[in-house]
Amino acid sequence: MSEVTQIRFIKNEGNAIQICNYSDDTHPNAVIPELYDFFKWYYSEPNSRQGDYPDYVVANFIYYEKKKLSEYGNGEEKLGYGIEKLGDLDGEEEYIYEVDLTDAEKPEEVKIRYSDDFKSFSKAKWHPWTTLGKFMAKLLANQ
After folding, report:
1. How many domains does the chain contain in total?
2. Which end of the chain, N or C, is surrounded by fewer C-beta atoms within 10 Å?
3. Is residue 63 part of a domain?
């Protein structure tokens, strides 16, 4: 059964885009490693990026995820992601995420936070900001 999550990509507080993701697992221990793998790919060739603006990052993230899904050959790449109006929630989310691209030069520096206690993005009780590098180090240390 698919779960729903919302991921908001932001840069410099005013530039943001939000996507919904239907997935089998929306827990931070599943979503954040996916984001980390994407950013490792995204930052691997600095001259091939069109800046770190949320709209470009989101377009590349959805491309990256759908390309992985297409390897299964069962049409799943047509499912799973959508662009949302900022602040919209479906009401079925277990987690919401914010990814801050401000000042990130490599995947480990991208900042992230998530909430499992929210009625909206503005009224969420967020877990503290951390970097993808710190989250992944902690996750790997606990395995």
Report:
1. 1
2. N
3. yes
Residue partners of 64: CB distance under 8 A and separation at least 6: 38, 41, 42
Question: Domain span at residue 76?
Answer: 3-138
Nearest C-alpha neighbor of 16 from the set 134, 115, 96, 117: 96
- Over residues 55-107, the pLDDT tens digits come to 999 999 999 998 887 877 677 667 788 899 998 898 888 999 999 999 898 99
> Positive or negative, the Cα torsion across 28, 29, 34, 39?
positive
User: Whole-model pTM?
Assistant: 0.90
Question: Would you say residue 143 lies in a domain?
Answer: no
